[in-house]
Amino acid sequence: MFGGVSLSCEAGTFALIDDDILYLKGDKAVRGEFEAAGWPPFRPFGPEGSAMGYFAVPGELLDEPAALQPWVNRAVAAARRSGSGSRRR
Question: What is the CATH number that goes with domain 5-82?
Fold first, then answer.
């Protein structure tokens, strides 16, 4: 897949870590919020490559769990909406 780490829960993959940067999942419902906050998209093939639906978390936010939590909640909700989570049978 790629040389990073994916973070998943029952809803599916909600975050990636690549090159020591945390990226949270964003979909049509929340993409605008990530963009408005100035979070750049994950571009695994360089600046000219296609953007994926994950957005870079500013480093200073990693030291503020209470401020980060609402963003993580948005990412988990985006993962849930994508329908890629685990399915119990």
Answer: 3.30.1460.30
